[in-house]
Design goal:
- It is a single chain.
- This protein is mostly beta strands.
- It has one domain.
- About 15% of the residues lie in helices and about 35% in strands.
- β8 and β9 form a beta hairpin.
């Protein structure tokens, strides 16, 4: 089963890049300087940020739907990120060192299946979930903190 993993588009975050701390606070966001690796998984480029890079921590509605599954949570984005991760049959390296929760949704944005997997073995679970005709797309989350990681679709 071929799959496509995409990070978030950088466009919605670009107006926040370069804002002062006070301006970011008005948006409910914080600027952090990366002080450890791994620890700050960027949702645009889908990579662990390097020590010294600037990350924005903010709340993001990753499932903006009118169902009980509407959802938002805190995420990191690299300040200045311009190119979103978009690959077919390639798993970003930062997934490999984490436990992931995969949530399969149908065309009506209703949850149809969910499971956890060691990131080193994520392709198998992706294939199983996409094999179901009920699955329209998958959301990957980092299982321990529960935050959104990326979207997965059939390629």
């Amino acid at each position: 089963m071929t799959f496509r993993i995409t990070g978030l588009s950088p466009e919605p975050f670009q107006p926040l890049f370069g804002l002062s701390e006070a301006q970011l606070a008005r948006h409910g966001a914080l600027r952090l300087v990366v002080d450890r690796k791994p620890g700050y998984p960027d949702r645009i480029e889908l990579r662990d940020l390097d020590i010294g890079e600037s990350a924005l921590l903010l709340n993001y509605t990753h499932l903006p739907v009118e169902t009980p599954f509407r959802s938002s949570y805190a995420i990191y984005v690299r300040e200045g990120a311009r190119a979103r991760y978009d690959r077919i049959n390639e798993v970003p390296e930062l997934f490999r060192s984490r436990v992931l929760s995969l949530r399969a949704f149908d065309e009506n944005d209703m949850l149809r299946a969910a499971d956890i997997v060691d990131g080193a073995e994520v392709e198998g679970l992706i294939g199983n979930l996409l094999a179901s005709t009920e699955t329209a797309y998958i959301h990957a989350h980092y299982a321990k903190p529960g935050c959104f990681a990326a979207r997965i679709d059939r390629a």
